[in-house]
Specification:
Blueprint (H helix, E strand, L loop, with lengths): L1 E4 L2 E7 L2 H15 L6 H5 L8 E7 L5 H16 L9 E16 L8 H4 L3 E10 L4 E2 L2 E4 L5 H4 L7 E4 L5 E6 L3 E4 L2 E15 L16
Antiparallel strand pairs: 1-2, 2-9, 3-4, 4-11, 5-9, 5-11, 6-11, 7-8, 7-10
Helix pairs in contact: 1-3
Length: about 210
């Protein structure tokens, strides 16, 4: 299914078991050799602060990247969003939580077009342990006001619940925020971002690796 809110579009779908297993295996492989940066080591980052690897997507794709795209592109199509499959990037994320206290380590309320114009995004949740609370996606009609952000006024938002296998496709204009989590468990997800066909020539720091 997909919905439109004002000028934004988002779709909510579900991976089948084989797709979930394939994507999570790829994610674990990508993060296998992850090393903390000097900055992360100095400030004593732990696993709840997240591990991530970014891969550039262009015309030269590795086998694993092509596997991800073969799964994700049909979901963009189901949501009615036009993308350029040869211009974008893939982010692989892993968070481990071990506290009953809520930890908000996700990005702020934003649309993808604020950072990268003419893009659409797909979030694929390859693992979300049952003991975790929150970790859902908030969709906003407008930016939260100051009074809303400090809790004095109710925010105009909806929530998309996520589980292992959830697929959330968002048009670039959609204001959203991925919640943090509390509890004991692991949250793995893959973020795939593509430019629309109107945009080309995007440069990214990490080119796709070859297996």
């Amino acid at each position: 299914m997909y919905k439109q809110v004002q000028n934004t579009t988002y779709g909510v779908f579900t991976l089948d078991n084989s797709e979930t297993e394939t994507l999570n295996d790829i994610l674990e492989l990508k993060l296998e050799d992850y090393k903390r940066s000097v900055y992360e080591t100095f400030f004593n980052y732990d696993d709840s602060d997240g591990k991530s690897v970014s891969v550039r997507v262009d015309t030269n794709k590795s086998k694993t990247t092509q596997q991800v795209l073969d799964i994700v592109i049909p979901y963009f199509e189901k949501a009615g969003l036009v993308i350029n499959p040869d211009n974008g990037y893939i982010d692989y994320y892993k968070y481990k939580y071990s506290s009953p206290d809520y930890k908000d380590n996700s990005y702020c309320v934003a649309s993808m077009n604020e950072a990268y114009s003419n893009v659409h995004v797909c979030l694929l949740f390859t693992r979300k342990d049952e003991n975790l609370k929150y970790g859902n996606i908030n969709i906003y009609e407008d930016y939260p006001s100051f009074m809303e952000s400090i809790g004095y006024e109710k925010q105009k938002k909806g929530t998309i619940n996520t589980n292992t296998g959830s697929v959330i496709v968002l048009s670039g204009e959609t204001l959203h925020k991925l919640q943090g989590c509390s509890g004991n468990g692991t949250l793995n997800y893959i973020q795939v971002v593509f430019y629309t066909e109107k945009r080309s020539g995007y440069r990214y720091d990490n080119d796709d690796d070859e297996e």
